[in-house]
User: Which sequence fits this backbone?
């Protein structure tokens, strides 16, 4: 049962006409020390390899190839930072749990992602992407529990919604929410080809970024 009307209990910000306009690639980093430090709130995209992180970023940016999209899992091995109009920085994190990657490499990515999620003061919101067609994994539950324990707000995005019939999406979202132990309002279905879900995702990102900027102005 959903007790709230808005994802994370926060009314999505109004998305201006023509937004986001230009989105600039800032930098790639293989280690946290290489990450840029801009005085702008940051929102990250995390999830298993191939779940659609880069595709979501491209769709939100209205660009085909801003972030590299690949049908070969594990292609994005770096943290990639994008500046959206000096309003928010979006970070595309490397996919975790790519079974074919050498163990040492998996450990290295995991370490970098963990360090980023722990020690990134600008981070105001995390997007956890899960495939709408698949059962939630223990990795995803662990990550969500960690977000909860750390007080990091997390919006769950159920990707590839076009892969299931519209009539089945509501039940799929409810199943994901139940498995993760979150409110169903906090799980937003998204489809890149349909562009469905993009408005509420942008609205939520902007609401968190704007709240942070307003706090800093006080
Ligand atoms: N039908 C459909 N396919 C999608 C959608 N989003 C992503 N895909 C496909 O899923 C595959 C993986 O997408 P990516 O965006 O590269 O996934 P990723 O999470 O960035 O993967 P890594 O960089 O390996 O971690 C690509 O073939 C995409 O075209 C979607 O909403 N609908
Ligand atoms: Mg990627």
Assistant:
């Amino acid at each position: 049962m959903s007790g709230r009307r808005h994802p994370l209990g926060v009314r999505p910000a109004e998305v201006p006409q023509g937004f986001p306009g230009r989105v600039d690639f800032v930098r790639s980093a293989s280690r946290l020390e290489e990450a840029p430090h801009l005085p702008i709130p940051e929102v990250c995209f995390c999830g298993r390899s191939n779940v659609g992180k880069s595709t979501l970023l491209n769709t939100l940016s209205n660009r085909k190839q801003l972030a590299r999209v690949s049908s070969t899992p594990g292609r994005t091995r770096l943290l990639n930072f994008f500046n959206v109009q000096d309003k928010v920085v979006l970070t595309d994190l490397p996919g975790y749990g790519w079974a074919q990657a050498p163990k040492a490499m998996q450990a290295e990515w995991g370490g970098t992602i963990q360090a980023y999620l722990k020690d990134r003061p600008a981070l105001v919101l995390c997007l956890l992407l899960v495939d709408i067609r698949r059962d939630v994994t223990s990795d995803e539950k662990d990550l969500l529990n960690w977000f909860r324990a750390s007080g990091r707000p997390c919006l769950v995005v159920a990707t590839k919604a076009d892969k299931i019939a519209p009539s089945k999406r509501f039940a799929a979202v409810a199943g994901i929410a139940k498995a993760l132990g979150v409110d169903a309002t906090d799980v937003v279905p998204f489809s890149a080809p349909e562009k469905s879900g993009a408005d509420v995702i942008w609205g939520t990102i902007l609401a968190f970024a704007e709240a942070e900027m307003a706090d800093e102005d006080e």
